[in-house]
């Protein structure tokens, strides 16, 4: 079965027992972004700041998530 890119990403991100995404499903993506994005390199040596930055961005993600769900 061939999937379009959006369906493939959705399938990878969601929990196996669900047919929808939750906020928790975005956390691994955010962690990877924080650890590998060149523009966020200054955060790599400060795990506590990464956590705070992740919490801050999750507030904005909440607004985006619920406005498009």
From TrEMBL:
Domain PP2A regulatory subunit B'' EF-hand: 5-55
Source organism superkingdom: Eukaryota
Keywords: Metal-binding
Classification via InterPro entries: EF-hand_13 (IPR041534)
Pfam (any one): EF-hand_13
Name of the protein: PP2A regulatory subunit B'' EF-hand domain-containing protein
Species of provenance: Platanthera guangdongensis
Organism classification: Eukaryota, Viridiplantae, Streptophyta, Embryophyta, Tracheophyta
């Amino acid at each position: 079965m061939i999937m379009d890119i959006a369906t493939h990403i959705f399938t990878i991100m969601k929990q196996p027992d669900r047919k929808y995404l939750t906020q928790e499903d975005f956390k691994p993506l955010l962690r990877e972004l924080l650890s590998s994005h060149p523009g966020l390199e200054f955060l790599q040596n400060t795990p506590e700041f990464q956590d705070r930055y992740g919490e801050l961005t999750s507030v904005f993600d909440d607004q985006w998530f619920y406005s498009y769900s």
